[in-house]
Amino acid sequence: MYGYISSNNTKPQLLRKALWLIGFLFCLSGQLKAQTAGIMTYNIRLDVASDGENRWDNRKEIFAGQIKFYDPMVLGLQEALPNQVAYLDTNLQNYRHIGQGRDGGSRGEACVIFYDTTRLAMLQQKTFWLSETPAVVSKGWDASYIRICTYGLFSDIKTKKRFWVFNTHLDNNGALARKNGISLILQEIKNVNTDNLPVIVMGDFNDTPGSEPVATIKQVMSDARDVSTTKPFGPSGTFNNFEFDKPVTFLIDYIFVSKGDEITVTKHAVLSDSYNRHYPSDHLPVYIQVVFKPGNSKAPAEPAAEIWSKPFTQAEIVSSADKQIQKAWFYPTTQQKPQPLVISLHTWSGDYNQADPLAAEAVLRDWNYIHPDFRGQNTSPEACVSDLVMSDLEDAIAYAISHGHVDPANVHIVGVSGGGYATLAAYMRLKYPVKSFNAWVPISDLANWYYESIGRKQKYAGDIEKVITKNGAFDMTELTKRSPIKMKYPAALRKNAVLNIYAGVHDGYTGSVPISQSMLFYNRIVKEVYPGDVKKLVPDSVIQQLLSRQTSIPKGKPTTIGGRLIHLQKSTPLHSLTIFEGGHEMLPDPALVLPPIDNNKTLKPFTILTIGDSNGAAEDGWPVQLQKLAPYSFIVNKSISGNTIGFDNNGQAGLNTITNINRYLNEASHSFGTPDYIFICLGTNDTKAVFKDRQGEVVANLQTLIDRIKGYYSDQKLKVPAICFITPAPVDQQKAETPKYDGCDERIRQNNESFKAIATRNQIGFISCYDQLKAGIETKTKDGVHLTARAQFELASCVIGYINQNKLR
Q1: So what's the pLDDT on residue 22?
Q2: CA dihedral sign of residues 472, 478, 479, 484
Q3: Which of 158, 228, 463, 478 meets the CB 3.0–4.6 Å disulfide criterion with 30?
Q4: CATH: 3.40.640.10, 1.20.1300.10, 3.40.50.970, 3.40.50.1110. Which one for 607-805?
């Protein structure tokens, strides 16, 4: 059994009342007495055999025991390898973790954050890289190693108080990397903390209290040691180097808290616990106790006008069922050729005004897009996949087709959470021949979810009761009628329709919908289409394992989707199920790439190294767009603003790719071995006015760069990757800064023929970004040099075209 089952009409009401009373008393006690929370940062020391008697296998039990004893609400780890995280996952009850490895997905050391699921709900999470290109796997500045920061937004289950936690590990050698790394973290805090919530920053800073990185963060945050209301306890330092008989005086691990009265630090300690004269790690943990200021920190609603502006228009669609007005946000393509239509469905508690990350992605591709209301929040009988909802979705499709330039055979529905629920219901009931249905973390069995929501004391149980109440009593038959898994399978309508289901393995723990809702619906449909073929089903044992362990047993090389580890993937020609590392969420970047909308993508798991300048380093740069179009690929981006092919730009050797190419290749090898592809998009900075008299060197420098790359691999007797040179983009001289870029566009144009000849002579790939983007360049740059997001996407599409024409696998 994967949920609660009941058909009694009275007991649920009594149960609800009892649970409400208990919940009220708990909430009351929580308001009467402030809750103390333990916060800990701990460099775990990675698992290496050379540590001898201090290796992980000899200390893992005492390490886990120490965590259990102090029972922190939040625990930030550094240097945690996948096997160490897996061990703690198994041995720390009630804890879940967030965070990627520094090599992407589950690869490499991680700065994971463990949190107590009995006290906290995780609302958001992200891992970014401390480098010039924080969105992709990359090493920054003078760092010796790739460095990352993981953060999460958490909510206290009882008080609803929200706060941010950031966990990082700064570089041990690179002073500039430490300085810029902490500045990048502070900028990220500023970017995401728009509600001015309390913030905790923790980690191994690899620097002392008087250093510049520590001084920088102390300008805006407080060292918990300094503001503790009781005297700090324990040694003055944190790094012990496994030397038990020596004083611990080297302080490099810290916890910082927001200034002001939102967080009060009541205790601060450096814990020197040991066993048989051995420490659990080569660092001592820093542990603090805090009290959050009481008060409601619920996120304010964002005005629709701030979310939906041009190019979207508000549509008013007359219902064909009851003549009510259904509102929607609509974007029609600007292209003459008919384009796909994406119908994006809002969540359980949302409506058509809800922010949708897919909106910008649809506009980027210039596809038709509609975000319908379909009766708004699921709190009334008219909503919650009712007949009216199905009619509203049919009406939204009809409206988009009549008001946009839509390819009627290329219509796709995408929904997350409650929108995923509506997507599954649409798959079972919609008459229109939708090409693909794409459900993220969906609900399939409303009855089971209702009882699970009661057990979790979640508001959704109350919402469902509003939906199924008739004449003052619950009509329990409505639970079955509104459950997609119980609906009749429309075989004739779905002969060619694609169904894709995605769920985060931790959902139901960090979120509200257990992954069994996805797996059981997938099995139901596959049984209908392939009766008796049990090999296509998800076995009950696997369902139980994923539900209980929230992890998979690795078999072969791990695969990822959008940088997240895939725990389970099942498929037939028309149906797929993917369980990924994550919670109750959609992965926006691959969400419009995975459906069968167009061929502008590759779904093969390539390893790719990208080398570029500021257009490659931008947050919306072409490597980022490439990752969207290659969701199963692993990309290491070594694009740096100011990069050249072979000049010391502004006198900086760090911006000379020839000088640094071996370092780039080493980093790629460290991340995934020999890459399948190396894409190089450089040359704009080589043609700046300051280098106008050295253009004869530019082409020769490209030849040198190619020789260096080939030599790197041939010297190691390794296969040389497929290399492709991408020419610089055009420069709009009307917009470009003068005199810095005077004559730059003409020099790029003149160099391109020589670049092409070199590519041909060396038998490497060649993409003329200049020719591709020249037409209409006045609309494709922000300032004459730096490309818009749409132009970056266009460039990434050219790269995908090259990959698809030169298939390696």
Answers
A1: 39
A2: negative
A3: 158
A4: 3.40.50.1110
Rounded to 5°, angle at Cα 322 from 317 and 327:
25
User: Which among 84, 83, 112 is positioned nearest to 98, based on CA atoms?
Assistant: 112
d(CA 488, CA 472): 29
DSSP state of 244: T
- CATH code of domain 33-292: 3.60.10.10
CA nearest neighbour of 561 among 108, 137, 105, 103: 105
What is the model's pLDDT at position 28? 37
Specify the pLDDT at position 30. Answer: 39
CB 413 within 8 A of CB 343: yes
Pairing of strands 113-116, 120-129: unpaired
Looking at residue 508, what is its pLDDT? 80
pLDDT of residue 303: 55
CB-CB neighbours of 309 under 10 Å: 8
Tokens (6 digits) for 616: 């490659």
Q: Where are the domains of the chain?
A: 33-292, 316-444+482-591, 607-805
What are the pLDDT digits (tens) for 260-306?
Answer: 989 999 999 999 999 999 999 999 999 999 999 886 554 444 556 66
pLDDT the model gives residue 510:
62
Positive or negative, the Cα torsion across 63, 65, 69, 75? positive
CA-based nearest residue to 634, from 654, 608, 656, 665: 608
Name residues whose C-beta falls within 8 Å of residue 699's C-beta, 6 or more positions apart in sequence.
751, 754, 755, 758
Q: CA-to-CA distance for 327 and 332, rounded, in angstroms?
A: 16
pLDDT, average across residues 98-107: 86
Give 206's contacts (C-beta < 8 A, 6+ positions apart).
169, 170, 171, 172, 178, 252
Environment class of residue 50 by beta-carbon count within 10 Å: exposed (0-12), middle (13-18) or buried (19+)?
A: exposed
Distance between CA atoms of 210 and 301, rounded to whole angstroms? 42
Distance of CA 468 to the CA centre of its chain: 36
8 confidence band (pLDDT: 50, 70, 90): very low
Backbone angles phi, psi at 325, to 5 degrees: -90, 120
For domain 316-444+482-591, which architecture applies? 3-Layer(aba) Sandwich (3.40)
Q: Which contacts qualify for 396-401: CB closer than 8 Å, 24 or more apart?
A: 396/317, 396/326, 396/328, 396/343, 396/370, 396/372, 397/341, 397/343, 397/370, 397/432, 397/434, 399/315, 399/317, 399/328, 399/330, 399/370, 400/330, 400/332, 400/341, 400/343, 400/368, 400/370, 401/341
Cβ atoms < 10 Å from Cβ of 780 = 19
The answer, yes or no, to whether the previous bond of 303 is cis (omega within 30 of 0) is no
- Mean pLDDT to the nearest integer, 620-636: 94
Q: What is the pTM of this model?
A: 0.72
Q: Which residues pair with 255 in a beta bridge?
A: 202
Nearest to 573 by CA among 533, 544, 518: 533
What pLDDT is recorded for position 551? 74
Look at residue 550 in the predicted model and tell me its pLDDT.
76
Same fold, 33-292 and 607-805: no
What is the pLDDT at residue 7? 33
Q: Above 60 in pLDDT, residue 553?
A: yes
3-class DSSP state of 570: strand
CA 376 distance to own-chain centroid: 27
> What value does the mean pLDDT take over residues 95-114?
90
Rounded-to-integer distance, Cα 782 and Cα 538, Å: 49
* Mean pLDDT confidence for 40-51: 95
> What separation in angstroms does the CA of 703 have from each of 199, 716, 722, 756, 763?
50, 20, 16, 11, 12
pLDDT tens digits, one per residue of 427-483? 999 999 999 999 999 999 999 999 999 987 888 999 999 999 988 899 999 999 999
Rounded to a whole number of angstroms, the distance between the first and last alpha carbons of the chain is 42
- Quote the CA–CA distance of 723 and 729 in Å, as a whole number: 19
